[in-house]
Amino acid sequence: MAVTDNQRRRGPRVDVDVPTVLLNTAEELFGTHGVDNVSLRAIAREAGVAPAALTHHFPTKRDLLDSVVWRRGDRVAEDVRGRLRALGGRADVSTRELVEAVLFPFVDEVNRDPADAVRWLRIVITLALSGDEIIASGVAGEGDITDLFTSAATGVPALQANSVELRAPIAMFSMLTALAAADLGGYGRPIGPAGLDPEYVEQLALFTSSGLQAG
């Protein structure tokens, strides 16, 4: 039986950036199979490193998960914050502008790295829906995104305060869940190597804006 390079290898890997390989592997496995269904040992095996090498860089599964989420999440969150701040203080904000302030940073991330970013977004949505502290702490970081959204929403004449409080979470989570499912057949797989179908993004923004404003 032939012996593979991985079987011959002894000692730590020096041929790759191990933390990056581990993050890429964890993102793929977590996003494909679910966080609860993937062990650190499985990630180490898939990445081709020893379990001890994984725990050297990421001592716990929570440490690894946090790094997977915020490797992309920091950039996306800062973009969302910037867009929402730009809307704050205006009295003529449209629901479409409010929706795009949240949607477009995620769209940009998916378009940068279509297959992997969609898996990342599935991880984020799953954690956010369960109220996981990894997401809650990041959202409430420097410039609470929820507060910025609420502040910007006060400038939308068509929205009432109770609409923002009750309807906005439904609208935003539904929108991002649909974005995270762009590679699934039920949505017609409106994503390819070049990124998302612009018409899919347009319809998603339109549908979410209409739902937020309805009633």
TrEMBL record:
Residues 16-76 form the HTH tetR-type domain. Residues 39-58 bind DNA. Keywords: DNA-binding, Transcription, Transcription regulation. The keyword Thylakoid does not apply. GO terms for molecular function: DNA-binding transcription factor activity; transcription cis-regulatory region binding. It comes from the Bacteria. Gene3D superfamilies: Tetracycline Repressor, domain 2. The keyword Transcription applies. Signal peptide: none annotated. PROSITE patterns: HTH_TETR_1, HTH_TETR_2. InterPro entries: DNA-bd_HTH_TetR-type_CS (IPR023772), Homeodomain-like_sf (IPR009057), HTH-type_TetR-like_transc_reg (IPR050109), HTH_TetR (IPR001647). This is TetR/AcrR family transcriptional regulator. It comes from Nocardioides marmoriginsengisoli. The lineage of its organism: Bacteria, Bacillati, Actinomycetota, Actinomycetes, Propionibacteriales.
